[in-house]
Design goal:
- The chain is mostly helical.
- Strands 1-2 form a two-stranded antiparallel ribbon.
- α2 runs antiparallel to α3 and α3 crosses α4.
Length: 133
């Protein structure tokens, strides 16, 4: 029985090598050669959508004024935005708010949401499309 299992494992391995070899032996082998463009686009879409959900989560954490939720929200903003990101928000009847960097933006968000108590930010139906990879 052990010989049969070993033979089966060897056959599976040979099959995998036979299928994988043409992919990795291409003359233009590079990071994208083993993945289809559709797979790369799907991964990029997922990463962008995770950033949207991360922003919603971080913003909710910043609105909670107890415990270490503010620091968790600020840390999450730091993973989403570059250190020199520019923020500018304005609206009818509301003061214009500007900040540079995720820490400064987190302070503004906390000042704005803190008095409201816990909030829930949802990402809605935004979809990522037309990626050029």
């Amino acid at each position: 029985m052990k010989n049969v299992q070993g033979l089966m494992a060897a056959m599976v391995l040979v099959g995998l090598i036979a299928v994988a070899t043409p992919i990795f032996m291409q003359s233009e082998a590079g990071p994208k050669s083993a993945c289809s463009t559709d797979l790369i686009k799907a991964a990029a879409r997922q990463e962008i959508e995770y950033l949207q959900r991360g922003y919603a989560k971080a913003t909710d954490l910043l609105g909670i004024t107890e415990g270490d939720s503010f620091e968790k929200g600020r840390d999450l903003y730091r993973t989403i935005f570059t250190a020199d990101a520019n923020f500018s928000v304005s609206g009818e009847g509301a003061p214009e708010m500007n900040a540079v960097g995720p820490d400064a933006w987190a302070d503004i968000v906390a000042q704005t949401l803190g008095p409201m108590g816990p909030t829930q930010h949802l990402t809605g139906t935004q979809r990522v499309s037309d990626l050029d990879v």
